[in-house]
Amino acid sequence: MIRFPLVALGASTLLLQACMFSPGMHMDTDRLISQDSAENSMVEMVQITPKLIAQDQAVNDRLAVPQALLDYSPENYRIGANDALFITVWDHPELTIPGGQQQPSSANARVVRDDGTLFYPFIGNVHVAGKTLEELREIIATRLARYIEQPQVDVNVIEYNSQKIYFSGAFENAGILPVNAQRLTLLEAVGQAGINPQTADLSNLQIIRDGVTYRLDYDRLTSMPSRIGDVYLRPGDKVHMGLNDSRKILVMGEIGRPGAIPYRTSKMTLSEVLGTVGGPSPLSSSGKEVYVIRGVENIENEKATVFQLNAQSPSAFILANQFEMQPQDVVFVGAAGVTRWNRFISQLLPTATILYTGARTEDEVRSNN
Predict the structure, then answer these.
(1) Does residue 258 sit within a domain?
(2) Which Pfam families does the UniProt record give (predicted)?
């Protein structure tokens, strides 16, 4: 009984499988395109060309600060609960510093109660929450005029405790920033909070106001002419600097050091990403098979886009240096043809050897019997 055809059948089966699923990390673009036309595939192939780069740059240049943020203009400070006020009535130290000259100003402060009121001699309880310093000065002066001739009144806040702005995310000084009478811009506030360059995603600064989230590409808006300097913060605003550990770029295939790298800014380019991981392998990578796969996290609802770069082109370096990455992009570098063939042989021969050895052993056992 001849057993070698069994080996041939096994090898032929492996050969057929190898032809269907080529060993090594290789993306068959012809197969993707045919699937797209025949089966409405969820993948769209796009070549990285100078025209594509120009279109992307034009879109990025139109990025602007939301008009709703620019429309807000700070008004005069309004008193709130727990603010400490120092009320001066000129020529009447018994009203200004009832505790005596030796005590600090804070000891003679009038703290606004939780219900927005405070008590003041002669005039009793006064509702002060929501009023400006000038409005409160007028109220006190008018009521004191019943007891004091032409009272001269001044009101100052010595402790701001009622209004706050909240900072979270990749800030060195995340937490609460009290709001005072000074107008505070977004840039000033970010400067005070301090950005942590190691953990920050500079493309993802968020301002949450009245339940609405405004997203700003902080890095781009501060490095190009924009109106980000005209944005003022409002009491109650929440400012969040995104963390780059939640948004990454995955690099795989014929790469020196495959893995995930943090997404730090929208100005990260394909060449920077490839350089960070050691670049394509000079021995096993294919210069024509450099891909950026975008939209895989939402492929159930939208098409993923596969951008292809022909790295063998003389202009490839320029294009890679201008192609800007997005969070959750996947960079894939395919294997060269000789690498795929070598892997095919290395996977086929051990399996064929096992089949041949098994068949030969079976023949020897039968012949001995």
Answers:
(1) yes
(2) Poly_export (PF02563), SLBB_2 (PF22461), Wza_C (PF18412)
Q: What pLDDT is attached to residue 97?
A: 81
Neighbours of 3 (CB within 10 A): 15
- Work out the number of other CB atoms within 10 angstroms of the CB of residue 183: 13
Q: Is residue 359 a part of any domain in this protein?
A: no
Residues 275 and 261: their CA atoms lie apart, in Å, by 11
- Give how far Cα 116 sits from Cα of 14, 62, 83, 133, 176, Å: 82, 46, 10, 14, 22
In this structure, are 123 and 175 located in the same domain? no
82 contact partners, CB below 8 Å, separation of at least 6: 111, 112, 114, 161, 162
Domain extent at residue 202: 162-243
Would strands 164-169 and 200-209 be described as parallel, antiparallel, or unpaired?
A: unpaired
Q: How confident is the model over 116-151, as pLDDT tens digits?
A: 999 999 999 999 999 999 999 999 999 999 998 899
Return the DSSP state at 113.
Answer: P
pLDDT winner (highest mean) among 14-18, 40-44, 230-234, 297-301: 230-234
Q: How many domains, in total, are found in the chain?
A: 3
**Are 262 and 245 in contact, with CB atoms under 8 Å apart?**
yes
Both 251 and 328 in one domain: the answer is yes
| Residues 237, 206 contacting (CB under 8 angstroms) | no
Q: What is the mean pLDDT of residues 332-337?
A: 79
113-120 contact pairs (CB < 8 A, 24+): 113/81, 114/81, 114/82, 115/81, 116/80, 116/81, 118/85, 120/87
Other CB atoms within a 10 A radius of the CB of residue 315 amount to 11
Cβ neighbors of 38 (< 8 A, separation 6 or more) are none
Among the three residues 243, 273, 308, which one is the final residue of a domain in this structure?
A: 243
Of 187, 215, 243, the residue at which a domain comes to its end is 243
